[in-house]
Amino acid sequence: MSWCMVEFKAGRAEIYYSAVPVEKDDWVIVEADRGRDLGKVVAKDLPTDQVNLLLRQQQQQIHSTAQQQQSQPQQGDDPSQQQQQQHQQQHQQPPKQPTPKRICRLATTAEITLLVTKRQDEQKALLICQTKSKQKKLMMDIVDAEYQWDRRKLTFFFVAERRVDFRELVRDLFKIYKTRIWMCSVNTVHKKPPML
Question: What ranges does the record give for the region Disordered, renumbered to this chain (predicted)?
Fold first, then answer.
């Protein structure tokens, strides 16, 4: 078994373990959130201590961004709700270290060529989400969209100065795409883990 770093769209990279032989720059099918995804191996044979460090850094980054977003007042929040949220944050358990997923296999040539279609569909989804966000007057900037390879999940990356209630937007997008919709702050996703 070897540890690898696999990169996806917009430089998002994650740690995976592999029982199948892979080389740097190979396209691979990996375990993903309730399905499969396609990415490119950017580093292989990572030492275990480096993997543990990268996983801790990734978790700290996710946790600090989540705390930052929760501490920002949301439009319409009253002071008593803000105090209750602060109390809940203080008594939350720190999140567990993420468990790395596995590289399932090498991607086929046909799967790799479908990336062009996937990117075109992501661009269309981005434009639709941006339009709907503006129609709803949401104070957020939708900057990217990414389908999971198996199309079971569609992630929209956004920037916002304060918390935004985008539940209605997510419901509208689900009606269009009939897949799981995920809204993700770019603060946690687009930062590439540092290579030691």
Answer: 58-101
- CA–CA distance, 37 with 119 (Å, rounded to integer): 14
Rounded CA gap, 184 and 9, in Å?
A: 14
Distances (CA, A) of 154 to 19, 78, 91, 130, 148: 28, 32, 32, 14, 6
Sign of CA dihedral 84, 85, 91, 93: positive
Tens of pLDDT along 11-63? 889 999 999 999 999 999 999 988 999 999 999 999 988 888 888 877 776 66
The reported pTM is 0.74
Residue owning tokens 């990356």: 157
d(C-alpha 111, C-alpha 38), whole Å:
8
Return the DSSP state at 9.
G
Q: Residue 65 — left, alpha, or beta (φ > 0 → left; ψ -120 to 50 → alpha)?
A: alpha
Q: What are the structural domain ranges in the chain? A: 2-189
Find, among 144, 174, 166, 167, the residue nearest to 156 by Cα: 144
For residue range 80-133, list pLDDT tens digits in order. 455 555 545 555 555 555 678 999 999 999 999 999 999 999 999 999 999 999
